[in-house]
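Explain this fold:

***
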Amino acid sequence: MTAKIRARHALPPLILLFLVGCGGGGGSGSQEPPGYTLGGTLTGLTSGNSVVLASGTNSVTVSANGAFTLSGTVSSGSSYAVTVTSQPVGQTCTATEASGVASANITNISVSCVTNSYSVGGTISGLPTGSSITLANNGTNSTAFANNGPYVFSSKTNHGENYSVTVTAPPKNYECSIENGAGTARGTVSNANVTCNFIEPFSATAIQLPDLRAKYDSLCGDDVVVRVSLANMSKHTTGKKDFVVVMFCIINPVGAKLTKTVPTKNGMVVFRQRADGSFYDATSEIFGVEMVDIDGALGEEYMAVYDMNGDGYDEVVFSPTGEDGRLLLNDDPNTWNNKQTVFLTSLGGGRYKLEKLGTPSYGSRNDLVDNQFGSKDIITSVIGYGGKAEAWRFSSTAGWQITSDYDSLGNSLQGLFFPRVTANSGTSSHIYATSTSLRLYSSASPGSWIRQSDWAFSTTFEAQFVSWNTQVGTLPITRIDGKDYGFLAFNSPCAFRRTTSEQPLALYSVPASEVVGGYNGQLLRESSSDFKPRILLLGFSITGGALAPADLRLKNEITDKMPLRFDCPDINNDGYQDVVISTWGPDAKPIVYLNTAGTGLSSVNLSSFPKGSTSFRGNTTILGDVDGGGIPDLIVYPLNGMQNKPTKVQFEVYKGKRLLDTADLNK
């Protein structure tokens, strides 16, 4: 029974084969094709950064270099395209071998990351026409730019690195500042803006010297007259200078008798400079008194300043006079205005002694002269009244002594002595000047002076003339370059070289009065509108032992000022001597002629110099390197007193910011 039943339930072979072919026997549908992964290698990613890669819905965030695999798979035969969907900070990543049709696992996708770099630049403004500015980034990529407007460096700065734009070569006489010039590059830098401004030769704000109000009031208040000189009285080794200030009183003539019991009110003080550039009144520590009595007034600005004993402190010599505006009566000896020369001699250690030496004289200027010992002698000049010009020499053993090396000049001692020609020689040429003539001397050996030639202004006209005190007479009129002048007077001289190779000229500042409209036979009156005050600059060469006028090739000559001090320094350190004329009067400024490489003398525009205090009456100036910085500073002080009743009396120093040059010339 059982066997029958089993037989009856067994399927025929054909039906069984059919069932198997149709998936019978337990299957659930057709088989899916295989899925493949997408991956590759990442390089160049910086530490701490990450990049997001994706292909369709499959993606991966990769935070380290090396192998990577996107999430999910792609079916066999399906297309894929892996892209960077999120770049790392400060980098740019690029995928290659990143697309295709999947037929197996993909492992050759290459993703390479590089750090971003950005251009650095900005805008330039204020650059003068025809000039350029050189900028650098991080001290490299130094580039010259010649135009205002946008600029950009050729080299770029990587993301996250610092940039620093600096000016390595500004345009001449300009200072340039940079706004937003430094930072960290996180994108294109286009705001490192450069602004250039013209540098004025002097600071606009003055350094104030110590207050002299108490000393002014102890003399004659706001009517104090001043003479000033620079000197090293502190053993400065950095070129700094101190101030020697002589104050005295001028009294309106009232016929008061000048006697020894009524001396000229005066006082000298010294301002020393500290290391930080400030000044203090050092008179008491140098001389032991608050003000030093020099026994008179000073007629001229010229003090002789030189370190005679080689101890690092300058000696200072000046010649006072007793004239202070009071009239001498008929029975007064004219020698009562004569005073001895004052010598300030270093004792070492910052102390000085004051000596009054020589023949009492009506003092004028004091000049340094090269001697045959490699040092300097001092010639004191006088103005008549029975005085005597003298030649002084210093020795460490005997102190100040009169030397006989100039005795053969006789009464022609004072004037211009030319500098030594060789290191082991003294001066060998000398010009003595009267008001209208010059006298040339030469010396073949010390003490032997020979008169060689004379030169004088020629008189073009003899004009009828009325003086200030109504006296009638004649006045010589000289025509120079088509203009007529009276009252010509050779004044301050200097030895001047136009080039480093030529022989020096004798250069003179000549005060004169120009006849307004020229002389046409009219009667001329002094102190009237018939005349205009003028400064003439005249040069003379020495050829074959004779003096001859020299062409100075003056450009834009300034003649309508009142001269006071005259020097021929190399004011702009270019190797050529220049000319500086200190003037005096309301808002007085110096007249400066720059020697343009030996081609001529051109005047500097007066606007280059700041004005002094409005409290100064009849101010004047000195150009000199006060702070030792190698650039002349401008000293302004009241020559003839104060006005507007200021509570303080402080002289002014305007610091030099740059050297004068052709940009400052009158055009």
Observations:
- The chain has a mean pLDDT of 90.
- The longest strand covers residues 531-543.
